[in-house]
Amino acid sequence: MKRILALLFALILIQNANAQIKQADQRLKLADSTIIEMPQIVIIGKRDGLISKVPGSATVLNSREIRLTAPLTSNEVLRKVTGVNVVDEEGAGLRLNISIRGLDPDRSRNVLMLEDGVPIALGPYGEPEMYFTPSIDKMSGIEILKGSGQILYGPQTIGGIVNFFTADPPSQEITRIKISGAKGGFFSGFGTYGNTIGKAGILVSYLHKRADDLGPTQFRLNDLSAKIRYELNSKSNLGLKLGYYEEESNSTYIGLTQTMFNQGDQDFVRMSPYDNLPVKRLSGSATHQFEFNDNISLKTTAFAYTTTRDWQRQDFSFSSTAANQTGVQWGNPAVSNGAVYMLNSTGNRNRQFQVAGIEPRLSVKHNLFNINNVLETGARYLYEKADEQFIVGGNANTAEGTLRDKEVRTGYAFSAYAQNRFDLTKKLSLNAGLRLENFDYEREILRGRYRINGVNNVIRDTSIIAKDNTMALIPGAGINYSANDRINLFAGIHKGFAPPRIKDAITATGVPYNLDAELSTNYELGSRIKFNDYFNAEITGFILDFQNQIIPVSNSSGNSNASGVVNGGQTLHKGIEAGFQIDLGKMAGLKNSYTFESSITVQGSEYSNDRFISVNGSTVNVKENKLPYAANLMIWNAAGINLHNGFGFRVSGNYIGAQFTDEINSEVPSANGRTGKISSRYIVDANAYYRIPKTNANLNLSVKNLTDQRYISSRRPEGIRVGLPRLITAGFEIFL
Predict the structure, then answer these.
(1) pLDDT band at 9 (very low <50, low <70, confident <90, very high)
(2) How far apart are CA 479 and CA 345, in angstroms?
(3) Kind of pairing between the strands at 111-115 and 160-166
(4) How far is it, in rounded angstroms, from Cα 720 to Cα 397?
(5) Which of 517, 533, 521 minimizes the C-alpha distance to 568?
(6) 3-state per-residue secondary structure call for 37-79
(7) Looking at the predicted structure, is the pLDDT value of residue 505 above 70?
(8) Residue 262 main-chain phi, psi, to 5 deg
(9) If exposure means fewest CB atoms within 10 Å of the residue's CB, which of 28, 86, 260, 529 is most exposed?
(10) CA 735, CA 15: separation in Å to the nearest integer?
(11) Architecture, CATH, for domain 2-735
């Protein structure tokens, strides 16, 4: 911390000595990239007023909101969005678990995750899991779309879209440095340089982030990226983006048993200290935009990325008689399944992913039926491949050993879409569209465990290839009515779709599992209200009616059998979302700003038809049971003061209602900690900041979990995860 304070002081001296610095407001605008926009895919758009044209529930979190939150992770920023629940896994935000409108949060599988409009999941179709999470430290904003406009994007059109967007090249030379630190060796340092010379603009950024003891987590990451914009001519420009990301952490699946949590002094003990997860990602994209005329434009995006994640995890057992024990045990052996016995072996889950795609998107303004129309149409071809190996390590701290499993999964996806906006009157518009998704996939088993001559689990090489296909038409429609310049009404209906994961759809013996695509019919009805620049609000009612919801039963979702996912049958999600923001200072014409914000979600998510499962040898019907990790009530509120002399303060609170963690809605916790009701919680954060007069420098002091609440954030993947205790961070930011 002393080194951080010394660096802060040195940067202040450098900044005060710089005679060429512009005024702070001008620099902040440049940093937000309001002058030059990259040719890239946007979901809603950054300009004021665009959100009022969206026929559905939508939120744009800009750079100002991110600064006010002073977030440790993106989880803190996303929690203010109605209908969104983010489940912490390791406290560092390295693995994002987002639930929208009561859907399962496991690895954000039910959400279409993008960065600058490009997919970022391991495999967007066959393995849509978030093992790479964009760092909030370098984000310029986040778009969240939950309505019928999702059919322009895919493949997932069920829960919603989350699009992280980074800053674009500025019109003038600018350098930004941002650092923050906290106890436990936490440090985040972010630097960026941008400029435009002639027809070319560039922005280069680098982030280094690390912690030694952030709760249970130790990690380090480096993130280097560049964005280049080049104006080819008056009608055409090109955008390029390159990225390199590397991360290494002690991420683990194992969590506390119930007895360990009840004991109260082992919340962040490292039960498997040798667990290690390195992640490496290389990415590149290019977007060409051509304006044929004022009415027709074509935007073509090509992208590719590779992700490597080799996860070393120590084996363990709940049986005291298990072979190959290290002698280390956790929990209470006097309680059945209440103790964990560590084994002298590892399971090394090594996976390499490749994704490439190209998508031309045409926008046409026309006058069909003698009214104004806007047509958005395009197509995308995407290729993805996953190489997977499972290596059995010979001791508790090795990534080397016997190759047990090996396979290759390949997918070829083609999608096409068209959506037309009919401006029926100056106040009323209708959006109608259709999306086609076709996914051909193949699973090739090269090595595995089989029953041979009456002997189980014999490891042998093989060559098993199986193929399958899923195809769907996804219609959607929405209306938007502007009663006046203050009140906007919207309604929408669209088909929700998500393809099955390849590994789950085809068995290890090469037999198609007949796992259906995830299908739902989604309805929305809502209103947006805005009074000048001091009050805005949105209220939305929604229904997600699933013909078949895929229920995760993977390790990461807390299932010890780890058999993948299953057809969950019919489920129903319905609720109301409401949020508002008011600035009493602006309302009264004062120089100072006094804001109050609130968002609330009331929802119910349940199995809506008969579904029978086996529990301890008995058959149980879970109809009308609540879905796992679907809180009935979520509230976020904040009060803030921003004084014209540069001081500001905001305190926020987040309430998450009680949640069940399994299909049978177990109230009593299991001894191993994996199931049982999670109690409701209310977590308070506070942030104070100061803009140094006549400078482009800001200081902030933030307190996470102000009241130091002790709570269970999750019982996944394999045991209890405790939320971070009170944490104080200090930060400094300067624009040069």
Answers:
(1) very low
(2) 58
(3) parallel
(4) 23
(5) 517
(6) CCCCCCCCCCCCCHHHHCCCCEEEECHHHHHHHCCCCHHHHHC
(7) no
(8) -65, -35
(9) 529
(10) 9
(11) Beta Barrel (2.40)
Task: Give the domain ranges of the chain.
Answer: 2-735
Amino acid at 731: G
pLDDT of residue 560 exceeding 80, the answer is no
How many helices (DSSP H) and strands (DSSP E) are in the chain?
7, 36
| 126 neighbors 171 (Cβ within 8 angstroms) | no
pLDDT single digits (tens) 676-735: 999 999 999 999 999 998 888 999 999 999 999 999 999 998 999 999 999 999 999 999
Please give the DSSP secondary-structure letter assigned to residue 485.
S
- CB 561: neighbour CB atoms within 10 A? 8
User: Which has the minimum average pLDDT: 63-77, 107-121, 500-514, 649-663?
Assistant: 500-514
DSSP state letters, 197-245 = ETTEEEEEEEEEEEEEEETTEEEEEEEEEEEEEEEEETTEEEEEEEEEE
Tokens of 496: 């929700």
Q: Which residues contact 265 (CB under 8 A, 6 or more apart)?
A: none
CA 481, CA 363: separation in Å to the nearest integer? 22
Cβ burial of 89 (10 Å; 0-12, 13-18, 19+) is: buried
Per-residue pLDDT of 421-456, as tens digits, reads 999 999 999 999 999 999 999 999 999 998 898 899
d(CA 695, CA 689): 14
Nearest to 380 by CA among 303, 475, 288, 284: 303
Confidence label for 149 from pLDDT (cuts 50, 70 and 90) = confident
Pairwise CA distance, residues 225 & 284, whole Å: 10
- Count of positions (residues) in the chain: 736
Average pLDDT of span 43-47: 62
Q: What letters, b where the CB count within 10 A reaches 16 and e where it falls short, cover 213-246?
A: ebbbbbbebebebbbbbbbeeeeebbbbbebebe
Helix intervals (H) in 340-487 = none
Q: Please give the single-letter amino acid code of residue 599.
A: S
Cβ neighbors of 626 (< 8 A, separation 6 or more) are: 604, 605, 606, 632, 660, 665
